[in-house]
Amino acid sequence: MDKVEITREIDARGSYCPGPMMELIRVMRSAAVGDVIAVLSSDQGSKRDIPKWTAKASQEFIGVEELEGYDRIVVRKVK
Amino acid sequence: MAKRVLFVGAGPGGLMTANRLAKMLPQEIRSGELEIVVLSDTPRHFYQPGLLYVALDLALPDGFERPQNRLKVPGVELVVDPAVRIMANERAVVCKSGRRVEYDYLVIATGSVPDLDAIPGFREGAHSFYTLPEALKLRKAIQSFDSGRLLMIIGVPHKCPVAPLEFMFMLDDALRKSGKRNQVELMYTYPIARLHSLEPVSNWAEKEFAERNIIGETFFNPESIDPVKRLVYTLEGEEVPYDLLVAIPPHTGAKIVKDSGLGDNEGWLPTDRSSLKVIGQDRIYALGDATNLPISKAGSTAHYQSGVVAANLAHELRGEPASVPYDGKVFCFIEAGLEEATHITFDYNHPPQPSDPSGMTHWFKLAFNEMYWLSLRGLI
Predict the structure, then answer these.
(1) Which of these, B293, B280, B286, lies nearest to B257 by C-alpha position?
(2) Measured between CB atoms, does B236 come within 8 Å of chain A?
(3) Which of the four CATH numbers 3.40.50.720, 3.20.20.70, 3.30.110.40, 3.30.470.30 does domain A8-76 have?
(4) Residues forming beta bridges with residue B378, ordered by sequence position
(5) What is the pLDDT of residues B175-226, one digit of tens each?
(6) How is residue B46 annotated by DSSP?
(7) Which residue of A has its CA nearest to B156?
(8) What residues of chain B lie within 8 A of the CB of A16, using their CB?
(9) pLDDT digit string (tens) for B53-105?
(10) Is A17 assigned a catalytic role?
């Protein structure tokens, strides 16, 4: 994951509403195919829900980096 | 020479902050050292949460509207001339008439805009309640809807994140009262893995849905609508039929933000989550829906932020540091039907926990619909 170039990073730490997942969907909608989006999330549910959504929406889940007090979740828009 | 604080936008964020600032610095205004100018694109102010009640035929729109010039306090100058370009390098804003207004400090409160064209087929196939014409159209559609599936779809992002749930609960109650509920299937969808962004609200809604026989579908992001076949197609590859489609339109930032080169791809202003200054702009604050902050686009967000921005402007105008932080506070009422409501409050560090719905909270919400006009003047 270190070698992936991030196109856009969303700092959704401390976001309960709309929350990291909604922020990701918002940015994915306006992103170009091939863009790599990183979401910073302090919500424990994000690293469970985001891979589920990328699988359902046929997008690419790249990985999760666990940092101090939050996660950095990386996704690529493929369609 | 007087210093000028210029506000672009006279919605709750702009007007409330201008009024609060005027009340904080009356001496500076009286002595001519400070001018507060608000640019508005309309002479009327509409209380947007009222549209939910209009769509459900619970209130007429007239009571939710006032003239802008009756809502400002002494010391605030209101100019009805839409701002069209912010020239940050020249500390000036240009209006539609060609008027150029210079500033010492600028507050951008341009809100968010429902984009009825973002989902193909939306205008032809869907009803919404985020503009007055749309709310009136939906009211008419509900009045003649006697049977079939009412499908609720949700675009991202959108303002007032609890409004879709409120709509479902209130409509469920109304249909039961009119004896039509057995002929109508209510189906609610949501973009993520649960019924609402806030987990406690989602858990509560799940229980209510089961009791009220409302169908809830998750991971549902509408991509297009076929108004002839009455089908919604999703990003996740599903197609779902409807008889009456109620849709929450995706929102974008204001055109002026995009045209001035200050926003991101969708027109949201990159904003510091604590100081509420536009990132890289020392003399520009942003608040309310206009920011890119990952918090609810809601009037209460603008309300809490307005106290921070007004206080920091007062400090800066007196040569002091802008020392008051925004902690991410949001408060929302949630109508749970026609006679009960709950509420939530949260900030960057404290998750929400909805209270049990009660008649008292519902009546307080209705009272707030009137108290709003006082809050705009900075009284509450």
Answers:
(1) B286
(2) yes
(3) 3.30.110.40
(4) none
(5) 999 999 999 999 999 999 999 998 889 999 999 999 999 999 999 999 999 9
(6) E
(7) A26
(8) 197-198, 346, 351-352
(9) 999 999 999 999 999 999 999 999 999 999 999 999 999 999 999 999 999 99
(10) yes
